[in-house]
Amino acid sequence: MKKANDDWAWVEINFTDWREAVDRRMLDVYAITIDDSGFEDDDLRSHWEDKESPFEFVLWFGNKYDLDPKEAFGLVLK
What we know:
Elements: H1 15-30, H2 34-37, H3 41-49, H4 54-64
C-alpha cells in the first residue's frame, strides 16, 4: 500500500516512517516531540503493531495526558 500523505489513515508503513510521522504530528499539534513525551520505542511499537495511524496515536496521546493543542495558546507557527 502507498503511504497516505496526511498520516490520518492506516497504511502499511514501516516502524521508522510511522515514528517519524508521529513525531511530526506531535510537533504540529502539541509543539512537543516524541523525545519530549518520554515515550520509548517499545511503547510506540505496540501502537504501531496495533495498526494505529500516526494521527490516531497522537489523538490518543493528547487525550490520555489532557494536552491542549498549541493553537489554544495562540501558537500557529510551524
